[in-house]
Amino acid sequence: MAQRLALQRLLALPARGPLASHGRAFGTSAGRRSTFNVQDGSDFQDRVVNSPKPVVVDFHAQWCGPCKILGPRLEKLVAKQEGKVLMAKVDIDDHTDLAIEYEVSAVPTVLAMKNGDVVDKFVGIKDEDQLEAFLKKLIGA
């Protein structure tokens, strides 16, 4: 009984307010539509490499403290771009092959991709002004 109750609580978390934007939760609010979690290599190919829009790729890990700060900050700024740019989140523990392919040696690593090519990148945490400049450069604004 206790296990079932714990499972019900866990499954209910993504639907709850501020918790929906953390971790691996899937939300449907307007701000979340431009951000998605990469499911596998083929999903990455379809939604990132073949994307007609520029894509910010956030390589992160659940155990990474700076990732927990950068991720929500970056998501918020991507949402403010009103669909001009997408954000793909790649957990390096789940998708080691992608991390190796894109030469990710530390997390967080953020790539800016346009037409399937990496056009810019940074490693580590950035403040909002630096992230806005990074996005504007990618979008061409």
UniProtKB/TrEMBL annotation:
Q: What sections of the sequence does the record tag as coiled-coil?
A: none
Q: Name one GO cellular component term.
A: mitochondrion
- InterPro entries, from UniProt? Thioredoxin (IPR005746), Thioredoxin-like_sf (IPR036249), Thioredoxin_CS (IPR017937), Thioredoxin_domain (IPR013766)
Q: Which GO terms describe its biological process?
A: cell redox homeostasis
What keywords are annotated for this sequence in UniProt?
Disulfide bond, Electron transport, Redox-active center, Transport
Ranges where the Thioredoxin domain occurs: 24-140
CDD domains in UniProt: TRX_family
Q: Where is the signal peptide?
A: none
A Pfam family hit? Thioredoxin
For this UniProt entry, the molecular function terms from Gene Ontology, in alphabetical order, are: protein-disulfide reductase activity
What protein family is recorded? Belongs to the thioredoxin family.
Database matches in PANTHER family: THIOREDOXIN, MITOCHONDRIAL (PTHR43601)
Q: What is this protein called?
A: Thioredoxin, mitochondrial
Organism listed in the record: Chaetorhynchus papuensis (pygmy drongo)
